[in-house]
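In response to reviewer comment 3 from the previous cycle, which asked for concrete evidence that the modeling workflow produces usable outputs, we include below a single protein chain processed end to end. The sequence was submitted unchanged, and the resulting structure tokens are shown without manual editing.
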Amino acid sequence: MEKEKKEILEEKENACPSEIEGLCNQIAGLNDKYLRAMAELENTRRRAAIDSESAARGRAVSIAENFLPLVDAINAAALQMPDDEGIKSLVRAAESTLEKIGIAKIETVGQKLNPLLHNAVSVIESNADADVIVEELVSGYTFGDTVLRPAMVIVSK
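The workflow returned the following structure tokens.
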């Protein structure tokens, strides 16, 4: 072992400066390639995580949009039979489920019309200020910052 160390040291001492410089340049080049490869790997991991999150969000939005007609039917049943305990239970369950998965109902009546959240289908004379929602025809919903469906409303003149 000691003999090998001595031989390596002797080789270094006998090596010409240009050879040492070449090896140093080669080491620097390899180190640069390594650092670039590691940076590219990290960027690829980050892009994959973003793509995966985006795909999952897209699936969740799609499922939520398909779930909204069921919620509408439950709410319509509640309007037709407001005293039915079974339907009241369904309404509570639907509202709870929407809340758990992050779907929020858009506030309407009494709010100022926001074209990003509300779809005004009619305008009527009213004591309220202009462009204030006076009636909701169809509920609207958001999922985070994404509007799943704008609320269809009637606004005042």
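The beta strands are 103-105, 118-124, 133-138, 141-143, 146-149, 151-156. We consider this sufficient to address the reviewer's concern, and the full set will be provided in the supplementary archive.
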